Amino acid sequence: MTDARHQVFVSSTYLDLLEERSEAMQALLELECMPAGMELFPAANDTQWEWIKRVIDESDYYAVILAGRYGSISKETGLSFTEMEYRYAIESGKPVVGFLHSDIENLPAKFTETQPSRRKKLDEFRALVQTRLCKFYSSPTDLGAKLSRSITQLKKQHPKPGWVRVENLKDLITSDDVLVLRKENDELKARLDALAIEAPKSQDRLAHGEETVELDFICTKE
Questions:
Q1: Where are the alpha helices (DSSP H) in 31-172?
Q2: Whole-number mean pLDDT of the chain?
C-alpha cells in the first residue's frame, strides 16, 4: 500500500484569520496533508480566479473558515472570493467542511463587517455553510483540533487517492508481476520477428510462376 498525501484547500479571509490559518496549516501538516489556499494568492481577484479553480480541482478536500469578515468581493459576481471558492468546491463534488466562529459579536471591530450590506452577505454565507458539514470554533487552538478531527472523518467517509511519491510507485508492482510482463514481452517480440521474415499464409493460394496451367481457347480466322 502506498503512502499517499492528500491536498486540502483551506479557504478564508486573510488578515483577520492569520492565527486561525496558522493553526489549520499545522493541523494539516500533522495529518501529513498538503495545505493549499490563501498563502498562494493572498490578494485574490478576478484575474486569478481560473488559477484558484485549478488548485481546488487538484485538491482532495476543501475547508472554509469564517469569522466576522466577508472578504474581497468579485466585481463579476458580487460574491466574496471565499464564497465563490466554497460554491465552486461544492459544484465540483469536493468533500467540504466548514468552520464558523461561534461568537463574532465579541470580535475586535476591525475584524467585523460594519456595513449592513456586507454583514447581510456574511450572514447569508454563514447560513449556507451550515447546510453542510460544519463545526463551530471559539479560538485558533480550538479550530486546529476540530479541523484535524474533521479531515480525518472526511478521509474515512470519502477516501481519495491523493498524491504518491514517485519512488513509492515501484511497490505497486511485485517481482512476480515483472516476470510475467517480461515473459509476455519476449513472446511478443519473437512473434514480431517471425512475422517480419515469414511470407503471408495467403500467398499459398497464388501462382509462383512455375506451375503448368491449362487454358481452353478458340481461334478464328478472318
A1: 49-58, 81-91, 116-129, 140-157
A2: 85
- What is the CB neighbour count within 10 angstroms for residue 149? 13
- 86, 73, 87: which is closest to 121 by C-alpha? 73
66, β-bridge pairs: 100
CB atoms within 10 A of CB 222: 2
Q: Is 93 left (phi over 0), alpha (psi -120 to 50) or beta?
A: left
| pLDDT one-digit tens code per residue, 74-131 | 999 999 999 999 999 999 999 999 999 999 999 999 999 999 999 999 999 999 999 9
8 Å CB contact between 144 and 24:
yes
CA–CA separation, 12 and 18 (whole Å): 10
Q: Give SS3 for 167.
A: helix
Cell readout for 133 is 458539514
Contacts 24+ apart (CB under 8 A), 119-122: 119/70, 121/70, 121/73, 121/79, 121/80, 121/83, 122/66, 122/68, 122/69, 122/70
How far apart are alpha carbons 50 and 89 in whole angstroms? 13
